[in-house]
TrEMBL record:
It comes from the Bacteria. The keyword Membrane applies. GO terms for molecular function: cytoskeletal motor activity. It is found in: Bacterial flagellum basal body; Cell membrane. InterPro entries: CheC-like_sf, Flag_FliM, FliN-like_C, SpoA-like_sf. Signal peptide: none annotated. CDD domains: FliM. This is Flagellar motor switch protein FliM. NCBIfam families: fliM_switch. It comes from Aneurinibacillus soli. The lineage of its organism: Bacteria, Bacillati, Bacillota, Bacilli, Bacillales. GO terms for biological process: bacterial-type flagellum-dependent swarming motility; positive chemotaxis. The keyword Cell membrane applies. The gene is fliM.
Amino acid sequence: MSEVLSQSEIDALLAAISSGEMNAEELKKEELEKKVKVYDFKRALRFSKDQIRTLTRIHENYARLLTTYFSAQLRTFVQISVASVDQLPYEEFIRSIPKMTILNIFEAEPLEGRMVMEVNPNIAYAMLERLLGGAGTTSNKTGALTEIETIIMERIFSRALDSFMEAWKNVVDMEPELELLEVNPQFMQIVSPNETVAVISFSTKIGETTGMINLCLPHVVLEPLMVKLSAHYWLSTQKKTRDEREIEILQERVRIAKLPLIAELGTSTISVSEFLNLALGDVIQLDQRTEDKVKVLIGRKAKYLATPGTSRGRSAILIEKALEEEGVEEDE
């Protein structure tokens, strides 16, 4: 799409041409020249825009599931949202994360290959402190984790992968399993440096502590699912289909469901004192005459007009007209 200029920019451009600062012929010449777009072969774009949008939708759902999970585990205010979804070489991803961080390396059968959830130390140590009974403020801890700290973190992030499985269930049934927890990115080589990866960045806030959680999904791992990442496929799978047996069961349950049916002879309004002084034999005058049709209510909605009477010695009504939802009468 061509750039749209504001009125002030148009006026400035006309003034520059009029004063001779810009040459109209040169502008036309530049317009005719072929424009070259720089393309970096080391940063190949393997995911289409449609697939990036689908990944965004999937992980927006994952962010909501993580918010619920971490809020329950940490018993404090947690807010997680998708900040960005990018594709870049794996080597660039490694350079972009801190030298000491929390790296959760996991696999998800039936997909082949490994994926990574990188958690900023501020967030990870705030979670750890909160789980150990602290306030969950930012910790200045550096260096390797103790054995107890490692076990605690493995446990909480391993369960976070259950939400990952839930977020992806409309695309593929997978079983994520935490393989390794690492703190040094230099010791983590899950794919070749030039391999394209999708990086989903989550903005995370725990109490007053903020940081990022980055999910690294290599293209080579997601390759079997690329067709399913189209918007058409993903949205179609959200429409739940029922087999014929389910429909029959549902229809049968609707048929045998019981509804309250009330024939309303009329209404009346009395005061509280009159109500309290009611005695046997008192007469309450209704707002309908004996020859008027009575309303038949299903639940709280008037559906029919009927004539009261008796049948085989019991009180009965004869339904004569049906009412529309708006209350307008119509013949059967």
